[in-house]
Design a protein that fits this description.
heterodimer, A: Cytochrome-c3 Hydrogenase, chain B, 16 helices, 48% helix, globular, B: alpha/beta, five-stranded mixed sheet, 3 helices
Chain lengths: 386, 150
């Protein structure tokens, strides 16, 4: 929010004809706990003050007090709907600073779960976003229930692999903890084939719906320049015409072995972000198939299983590791002083930077569009507030 | 703009010696030149992308502010680091250059108590406005008591 607008917020009912409306923190479209103080002129948003922090647990302080063995399972609680990628970010940072090798099979397994996670996360986004826009989509909860069904199938796969449905503890420094159980690969193939088939249906349902198009096209435009200045990433920046994907920019975990496209749309509106994610679904499914086809044999971790929490030590140094999560660049900046705990850990949450776009793009839109725009940003507040 | 060219230009313009590692350029600089280097990175090195900004508490040696800027097209990242000096907590703002610095600097102020001079709206962002203390400082204990309801 710019300074001028904020002055009016402080004055309140100072004779101006603007109405202050509090949206959230408990609002169904907030996707968590987020409070937007909207300044309205009639039904049009004039300015926004975004209040965040309701889910703040100070992960960075926790990271300094927990050892390299303990923290990965806590890292999954930053972005809890894409826990595989948050865990991966932390262990990748530790491996970078400690120069720990990861066996090829473990790298492939990491790619496998990261891409499945992206599909699951995008399913949740598609469902909740369409639910937010509700009535316009003829039936409200239809797409939500369909998308949740697909997400459940992927969570079933994760459950068979790790024993958990949301917070996995799959990654560990030096590799991964579990290998594929017997028959898992076959179930996985069937699941992704099914999801791929369903996606075509949803796309037809939505793109053939005039209401959907009216509510998303030209709404919530993030310009290329604004996207870069804010450090927006993931489907948001690719929806604004910038071809930036960490998997390409700085390949980690053997992403260079796989063939996939980076979808980019130029418009920068809600519809462009929708298009990018719909294509990403398919690219992720393509990568999953490639991993299953080319999975190398070998060990799944370069380190023996840990017997005590202080067992992993990292030499003095620092490093920044980043991973392309479902919402964009998830990064971890780690400084080690040689002890079993990091001296400093900075968590770069993709949702935090993405959400920072809201005060810049909401003004000028109707209140109903606020919901559509927020859903298209796809924030996860565990990651915003950390 | 590849990182070796960028390193040469930073050396010539600022007289600083950056360390280079693939596409990453790390520049340690005095805090007085903080904004100047960011401006140079944005306009001359093409670092239009503001990735993140944070700080490190080096106890007796004071705070260090760290900022990562990127040129996405060239794959160049510039990591700026500036020590504020023992007992010092002032740093110039980058909000005039990058709008993304707004929330990042507010978070840094919230967690470390570093004051970004010139920031248009420097208030806490993650913690409540009446919170006492700055949690990511090393002298702030994890179990610091605070009243649950205020």
């Amino acid at each position: 929010m710019d300074v001028e607008a904020r002055k009016i917020v402080e004055v309140g009912y100072g004779g101006n004809e603007r109405l202050l409306m509090n949206m959230g923190p408990q609002h169904p479209s907030a996707h968590g706990v987020f409070r937007a103080i909207l300044q309205l002129e009639g039904e049009t948003v004039a300015a926004v003050d975004a209040v965040i922090g309701y889910l703040h647990r100070c992960h960075e302080k926790l990271g300094e007090t927990l050892t390299y063995v303990q923290y990965p399972s806590i890292a999954s609680k930053t972005d809890y709907v894409a826990a595989m990628t948050s865990e991966l970010t932390y262990v990748a940072a530790v491996e970078k600073v400690g120069k720990v090798e990861v066996p090829k099979r473990a790298q492939y397994l990491r790619v496998l779960v990261a891409e499945l996670q992206r599909v699951a996360s995008h399913c949740l986004w598609l469902g909740t976003w369409c639910l937010d826009m509700g009535g316009a989509l003829g039936g409200g909860a239809t797409v939500f229930l369909y998308a949740m069904r697909e997400r459940e199938m992927i969570l079933d796969l994760f459950e068979a692999l790790t024993g958990a449905r949301l917070l996995y503890g799959f990654h560990q420094v030096g590799g991964v903890r579990y290998d594929l159980p017997a028959g898992w690969a076959e179930t996985c193939r069937q699941t992704i084939d099914f999801v791929a088939k369903r996606l075509d249906e949803y796309q037809a349902m939505l793109e053939g719906n005039a209401f959907f198009l009216v509510r998303t096209q030209g709404v919530g435009v993030i310009s290329r320049e604004l996207a870069q200045e804010l450090g927006v990433s993931g489907p948001l920046i690719r929806g604004s015409g910038v071809n930036y994907d960490v998997r390409r920019a700085e390949p980690y975990s053997s992403y260079q072995d796989f063939e996939f496209r980076i979808p980019v749309e130029a418009a920068g509106d809600c519809y462009a972000r929708y298009r990018v994610r719909m294509q990403e679904f398919r690219e992720s499914i393509k990568i999953v198939r490639q991993v299953l086809d080319g999975l190398p044999e070998g060990p799944i971790s370069s380190r023996p299983g840990v017997k005590s929490v202080g067992q992993v030590r990292v030499p003095k140094g620092e490093g920044y590791a980043r991973v392309e999560g479902a919402r964009g660049e998830v990064g971890c900046y780690l400084i080690s002083d040689g002890s079993p705990k990091p001296y400093r850990m900075k968590w770069r949450g993709a949702s935090f930077s993405n959400l920072a776009a809201l005060p810049h793009i909401l003004p000028g839109h109707k209140v109903a569009d606020v919901v559509a725009i927020m859903g298209s940003v796809d924030p996860v507040f565990g990651e915003v507030d950390r | 703009m590849i990182s070796s060219d960028a390193a040469t230009r930073v050396r010539e313009t600022f007289g600083l010696e950056p360390t280079r590692e693939d596409g990453l350029l790390t520049v340690v600089l005095p805090v007085e030149r903080w904004e100047e280097l960011a401006r140079f990175a944005k306009h001359e090195l093409g670092c239009l992308y503001f990735n993140w900004l944070s700080a490190v508490d080096w106890k007796g040696e004071g705070f260090e502010v760290v900022c990562r800027l990127e040129n996405l097209e060239a794959g160049l990242a510039v990591m700026m680091k500036a020590r504020l000096g023992p007992g010092q907590s002032h740093c110039p703002t980058l909000t005039g250059l990058y709008r993304g610095a707004d929330w990042m600097e507010r978070e840094c102020y919230d967690m470390f108590g570093i004051v970004f001079d010139g920031h248009p709206d420097l208030r806490r962002i993650l913690l409540p406005q009446d919170w006492e203390g700055y949690p990511l400082r090393k002298d702030y204990a994890v179990d610091t008591p605070h009243a649950p309801y205020r």
